[in-house]
Amino acid sequence: MFGIGFGELVVIALLAVLVFGPDKLPELAQQAGRFVRQLRHFANNARDELRSELGPEFADLELSDLDPRAIVRKHIAEAMAELDDLEDAVAERPGLAAQLPLEDGERPPYDLDAT
Asked: How far is CA 44 from the centre of its chain?
């Protein structure tokens, strides 16, 4: 949960009791819960409105899909899968080896007759 362990959570709770007092703490917890529910409601409404505006092809859209890091990870995973598929195809048909990308430090082929 947000990178907070059990020990840190106990320290935060103890500090909250000391700062706000035991009589005010339940009221503050209730307000925090209400705020989180309202924030979740706003996020769900924004997601539903975005889905309806984008159309039926984005019906399964989640807000986490719009995270740039997730988008980059998705495209890298797709590219790696395509590369694995290409390597499998080359293993089956050796004539495709000329279409593989060069390895790091590998020099491209040079044809003296073509120049």
From this structure: 18
Strand (E) or helix (H) holding 83: helix 68-92
Any long-range contacts for 105-111 (C-beta under 8 Å, 24+ apart)? none
Return d(Cα 62, Cα 89) in angstroms, integer: 34
Q: Which two tokens stand for residue 21?
A: 């007092």
How confident is the model over 1-45, as pLDDT tens digits?
467 788 898 898 888 888 888 888 888 889 989 999 999 999 889
Dihedral-angle region of residue 55 (phi above 0 means left; psi in -120 to 50 means alpha; beta otherwise): left
Virtual torsion, Cα 94, 95, 101, 107, nearest 10 deg: 100
Label residue 49 exposed, middle or buried (CB < 10 Å: 0-12, 13-18, 19+).
exposed
Query: For residue range 67-109, what is the model confidence (pLDDT) as tens digits?
Result: 888 888 888 888 888 887 777 766 676 655 556 678 888 888 7
Asked whether the beta carbons of 29 and 39 are under 8 A apart, the reply is no
